[in-house]
Amino acid sequence: MQLVMNDERLQTIGQVKQFLAGSEALDFGGVSVEERYQWIETVLVRFKYYQLKRAEKGAIRRYIEKVSGYSRSQVSRLIREYNQRGQLRKAQYQRHRFSKSYTPADIALLARTDELHDYLSGQATKKIMEREWAIYGHTDFRNISRISIAHLYNLRGSHLYRSITKRYTRTKPAVVKIGERARPAPGGSPGYIRIDTVHQGDHNGEKGVYHINAVDEVTQ
Fold first, then answer.
1. Are the C-beta atoms of residues 217 and 183 closer than 8 Å to each other?
2. Beta-carbon neighbour count of residue 40 at 10 Å?
3. Is the pTM of this model over 0.85?
4. What is the pLDDT of residue 207?
5. Dihedral through CA 8, CA 2, CA 50, CA 65, nearest 10?
């Protein structure tokens, strides 16, 4: 790495200060993060950074900033990391995995609660489970009692829940037929009244009238 070869001529704090005062600059273009970290380690070791006085440490930090292109806060963090670990390594990204908040036992408990209480609303079911834990001290409900109502419905839709209970179905909206006209269905029993209207036609320029007849559907 050409940067390290050029950089090795700086061996004293005085030379570092002269470099900072001058216009000369080094370019880290095309250099990987691992190589930058290696160079920073080399500088810290070469100048015995942790044995320096405060002002001398400041000069080394500014030198690292100028050459690496890292900000002051980044350099401070890297120096602190090197002091703690004895090396600098690029952090490996790890995908954060959310642990499952509710176990199969919790889901089974929810299913049994729903079966016992005939599948109440999510809010009512949550209250029941909260009481089981907070009032009656049933430790099985300790975790599931903290569930949100929204997630409760999510669990009800899970494969495990449905494999435990076959009775649960989503609430279907009731269809109420209002004002629907239909003949009575007496089933052969009297007492079912049908209302008939009979219109008497117009006569001599006068409008006709309606007659209303109440007729038993069976006996007529």
1. yes
2. 22
3. no
4. 58
5. 120
